[in-house]
Amino acid sequence: MRKACVIGWPIKHSRSPLIHGFWLKKYAITGSYEKRAVEPGDLESFLETLEIKGFSGCNVTIPHKEMVFNKVIVTDEVTRGIGAVNTVFVSEGKTYGLNTDGYGFLASLKESTTWQSENKTVSIIGAGGAARAIIATLIKDGIKAIYLFNRTMAKAQILAKEFGSVVKAKPLEKLEEFLDQTDLLINTTSLGMVGQPPLEISLQNLPSDSCVADIVYDPLETNLLKQAKANANRTVDGLGMLLHQAVPGFEKWFGIRPEVTKELRDLVVADLLKDKPE
Ligand code: NAP
């Protein structure tokens, strides 16, 4: 029996068990996927004993992604550029790490639109961990230019310096001035998420054939996406990224590349709506 888990601190709200549990059942695999609360002080020993505990690997969430990056073998160029790991797998006694967040974003974008990165310009709001994963992935995919807007300009400048001349840091206040040259607008901040302030932006300057993606998935349709739909833009919600980022890990641990289906999406949507007032 193969086993995997998700580690974090706290871990209560992770939806990974729901996703992997769905696939285990669908593909009739005798295996398990569980939540493990791991305190930062216990992280190193947890990783060292992963295989002894019977795990084929694990997902990694807040606050461990950067720490795990420094403790595992990273062979993938995109993951090295991101500097954080969300997927760990054991192979021939060695522990490897991958970051699949950017992969998940791009897979979701390509599933929902006809997106090709070549010769395209992207505007990204936010310069945190998720933005870093998306930037590294879009660069690998051949993007022409990325404008990076962040409340704390210094953080955007650090990323621009790290990723080179494709990425240009800009103050958040200037975003609307760049929309007329934007093929894809992505919100990677927590703005617009339930319990967080809204993302206040006018899409008036955005061409109607551009795409708008929000990586926030609660609510599923953020105000940004509502506005984009009203502007006739194609939209991509954050749930697709969450589902697709789980695919490579499941394949490594359980040996089958799983499919992201409407049935799985509906299951997670129902879970998101579960505790909401009518
Ligand atoms: P992070 O590293 O903490 O970065 C947060 C970003 O949001 C920073 O750029 C921060 O700006 C900005 N921000 C936060 N509050 C803000 C405010 N009030 N005004 C302006 N900017 C604000 O977080 P992360 O890991 O990148 O995650 C960001 C969001 O993406 C979260 O909501 C997370 O749930 C979501 N996410 C979704 C998926 C998915 O699969 N769909 C995957 C990963 C993350 P400063 O630098 O100025 O602080």
Automatic annotation (TrEMBL):
Q: Which GO terms describe its biological process?
A: amino acid biosynthetic process; aromatic amino acid family biosynthetic process; chorismate biosynthetic process; shikimate metabolic process
Give the keywords, sorted: Amino-acid biosynthesis, Aromatic amino acid biosynthesis, NADP, Oxidoreductase
Give the Shikimate dehydrogenase substrate binding N-terminal domain ranges. Answer: 6-88
Which species is listed as the source?
hydrothermal vent metagenome
Q: Which SUPFAM superfamilies does UniProt cross-reference here?
A: Aminoacid dehydrogenase-like, N-terminal domain, NAD(P)-binding Rossmann-fold domains
* Gene Ontology molecular function, alphabetical: NADP binding; shikimate 3-dehydrogenase (NADP+) activity
The record places domain Quinate/shikimate 5-dehydrogenase/glutamyl-tRNA reductase at 116-190
Q: Does the keyword NADP apply?
A: yes
Which Pfam family, just one, is annotated for this protein?
Shikimate_DH
Q: State whether keyword NADP applies.
A: yes
Instruction: List each copy of the SDH C-terminal domain by range.
Output: 238-260
The identity of this protein, by name, is shikimate dehydrogenase (NADP(+))
Q: What is its EC number?
A: 1.1.1.25
Question: Which GO cellular component terms, listed alphabetically, does the Swiss-Prot or TrEMBL entry include?
Answer: cytosol
